[in-house]
Amino acid sequence: MITHEQCCYWDEEDELKHLKDEFVLPEGVVYLDGNSLGARPKKSLAYAQHIIQQQWGEDLINSWNKADWWGLPTRLGDKVGQLIGANAGETIISDSTTLNLFKVLSAAVKIQAEKYPDRKVIVAEKEVFPTDIYIIEGFIDLINQGYRIELINGADDLAEVLASEVAVVVLSHVNYRTGYLYDMTDINRQIHATNALVIWDLCHSVGAVAMDLNQSESDFAIGCTYKYLNGGPGSPALLWVNAKHTEKFWQPLSGWWGHKKPFDMAQHYQPADSIRRYLCGTQPIISMSLIECGLDIFLKTSMQKIRAKSLKLTDLFIALVHQECAEFGFELITPLDHHDRGSHVSYRHAHGYEIIQALIARGVIGDYREPEVLRFGVTPLYLGFEDIWQAVQQLKAIMLHNEWKNESYLVRAAVT
Length: 416
Description:
It comes from Acinetobacter guerrae. Homodimer. This protein is α/β, with parallel strands linked by helices and 416 residues long. Helix content is 37%, strand content 14%. It folds into 2 domains: 4-41 and 302-410, Aspartate Aminotransferase, domain 1 (Alpha-Beta Complex), CATH 3.90.1150.10; 68-298, Aspartate Aminotransferase, domain 2, CATH 3.40.640. It contains 12 helices and 15 strands. The chain is globular, with a radius of gyration of 22 Å. The chain starts with a helix and ends in a 16-residue tail after the last helix.
């Protein structure tokens, strides 16, 4: 039996517990949705005021140089790079994950079209976050060159589909619904053995799962900064390109920020000789600047320590739901094997939506994903073992007292 006292003891022994003080969290709330929107770093409020009052208000346009607004995309990119196994100068922060996928997909397809013009298949997962599929479909329709998308169920389908004329594979490092974690090194090896290229979507792994993009010989990667990295709502996304690909082609959104000499105001585009060629236009400076508040917290520890705590917390959540809620019909769909598990835990239940609403009413914030999936994000920087205990106790109470049957929980909001 796992007890409340045991969870409190684990918190006392946790070497990352002090990092929770770096964040603002409402009193009485257990926040298990940091894999959708990360909590606010404490220093972000004062820093936002400084940006608005001093950099914008007092220094005005001089801040492009004085505050290095121009260098933000690469400077922050290098900080993110330390979390994903990237070398300096390989990563930028820019635009959204959706736009960045379009950029790197375009580059990957152009590289492949030059070497293997008959390869016309782009592979993605059926269970990927849908925007990835939408972008691939839109790209195929735009270029109108005979490409087609082929959807797979998961890693087990990969070998079979790679036997066809595959140009590019787009995969989520961690599945947004189930929490399944791909073995990046093994998958890259399989894909490269057939001369295809791979794009990794890191939205549900960056900041929660240790990885090494260079050591694993990845090709391209994109991902959010507003989830585990705590960059703020809709903060600009990351984009990484393996150095061997950077200067082979430039992406099609050839805006002036990606120009080799942007202030020459030349009439024709010439891409920068660096990762900056993946920039487009002027970036949202306030939103981008606040990303640094979250990144600096990560740099006080290591991804190995964060990953170790993540696994302990998800192990605890799974064990406690089994111990306290076994009678209520929750079906675990997240892998038990550490090798295959990201940093969120998902259960299927016929009344998943209503149960999540009842949990939120009790101060435990998780989220719901169709069909019938309750999803609980585990963010090691600001969650502890006792938080997990309290969350499962609230879940147990809701099920014991049938609180999820409240008619108000049947009403779907615009954002679920």
